[in-house]
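User: I'm putting together a teaching handout on how multi-component assemblies are represented. Below are the sequence lines for each component of a complex, exactly as they appear in our records. Could you produce the 3D structure of the whole assembly as structure tokens, so the students can see both representations side by side? Please keep the chain order the same as the input.
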Amino acid sequence: MEIKTPYLLFLGDAPDQPAAKTALGVVDWRPEWCVGQLRLPGCKADAGVPDLTIGEAVAKGAKTLVIGVVNSGGVLPHSWVETIVTALEAGLDVASGLHRRLQSIPEVNAAAEKHGRALHNLRTPAEEFTTGKGAHRTGKRVLTVGTDCNVGKKYTALALEREMRERGLKADFRATGQTGVLISRRGTSVDAVIADFISGAAEWLSPSNDDDHWDLVEGQGSIWHPSFAGVTLGLLHGAQPDAVVLCHEPTRTKMRGTDYPLPSIRSTIDTILHLGRLTNPAIQCVGIAVNTSQLPEGEVARYLKGLEREHGLPATDPIRHGVGPIVDRLLACVP
Amino acid sequence: MEIKTPYLLFLGDAPDQPAAKTALGVVDWRPEWCVGQLRLPGCKADAGVPDLTIGEAVAKGAKTLVIGVVNSGGVLPHSWVETIVTALEAGLDVASGLHRRLQSIPEVNAAAEKHGRALHNLRTPAEEFTTGKGAHRTGKRVLTVGTDCNVGKKYTALALEREMRERGLKADFRATGQTGVLISRRGTSVDAVIADFISGAAEWLSPSNDDDHWDLVEGQGSIWHPSFAGVTLGLLHGAQPDAVVLCHEPTRTKMRGTDYPLPSIRSTIDTILHLGRLTNPAIQCVGIAVNTSQLPEGEVARYLKGLEREHGLPATDPIRHGVGPIVDRLLACVP
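Assistant: Of course. Below is the structure of the complete assembly, with chains in the same order as your input.
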């Protein structure tokens, strides 16, 4: 079921900007869907859209209240429940990135049933998945992969979608995490599905399509991350990508949440291609997307040039320079 | 929570022997725990243990009724529910390999609560897992891996446990599937955990232990299976094995449930070691366990000799010949 737009972004009493990163991600990529934000007293985050009451948002056409903020301690404050119920009564659906399912909050569940509103839990798959089949599907697919978690895989897939659409190509971002689902109104958090169904969920996510249609699939984790490699591999097999784009953050030394050193770009690409050939023998890597925000300004160009020479691939920072060279390579390499 | 033994095996109205394979697996490895079987009219399976009523089983000391049979169509027949409730009233716990949770059957749930009995759902993890940490644990671990699903990974891990215990070693089989959980009274179906927690579940399963203690971890799936490789990889990373044993069925040409050709033994071992080095840099392969039941009798010895020459590893059929040579190699290679 698609999440209805436009959105009213609920930021609660977020203690800082990072706590609201889901809401901020939606504004980054779909500002036209965000009529405003609703902040409670003490909120330190700002999505840069107008502050609106629920009534004002409804008058501006809002269809869904998006809880795009992490609540500290995991306990849902009473003031949040009140806001959610008021939104349902005013005619909004609610989409939540909280761990707790909205249906498990009695007041919220009762209000949704009474007013016939939809409750979307972005962290809980709404679909019944099956095991992956590994059968070939029509259409073309790109998957973003990374040397680590949080190195720009979602951002890069979205930048590819934007660039390809600007070139008049049929291109759809396919979301595998909660922020991505809000941005595309559809998708699933693949890390929350039953382990047996990871590749099946990825197959559901990027079904057969026109021969000239591109799916840009948001990657998860890293094939070298000791916590999440299983999810990464199931997603790789299910997405059966024709091409991958390697995402990297050059100043990071340890893999997120671990004492493991960051793997090399080379070994990550090689291993992804080795494993990915199972479900798509023609898989290739068409570029390197680098988050250079932590590099000294003067080193960026030299660093990217070095990567291009070393790997024979276009290397670019999607935020600074866009992904034009990667799309050029993609279109040249995938028939 | 450990499942209490001994067991009364419930075979229901199993249409054939394969339908009761969970019960048969328990009898194979823990005959001393199986006081008898309970079969309904029309049952075509036979576990080779005495037919007992629930009252007779209780008198013989049974503690748990084990539903070790697949029900056709997924609907739970009323006669089964009646039997389960009678068992609970008679003082037995119930362990079930059915997809449907026992607690979701109102009569069963009520009887369990009333009589204070435990309900074990072997396909639904009872633990709350977290993400894997990848931290080194003490003790030694062996994981069975395979060129495909259903090639003897559970059987081989159990045969290793038996051989090592006979040699006076500290060795524990660690179950990752429902039959294995019944055989070891503990464990979890790793393919049923949330994808994010696969490696975390494997870490929980084989915790730190004495330096001279061996965990024999039951493998799942295959690193080259398009449906299940994610589970296989998460289990590999979480188990952080010092050694793996490769399991193979030589007459199979397609991977189970797919049109994919069986991968080679060589590429399976190489890929497992390449990926497994992440959480255990000393990982090695110490043997090949072959299910030769489908090979012509006269070819078995020559086939195994050929494998030994080709791979420089002991190759044996655990059922025909035991796993002595593999344990010899293991003890010689893992300090």
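A couple of points students might notice: Chain B touches chain A at residues 131-135, 190-196, 198-200, 223-224, 226-235, 237, 257-260, 271, 274-275, 278-279 (CB under 8 Å). Chain B has a mean pLDDT of 95.
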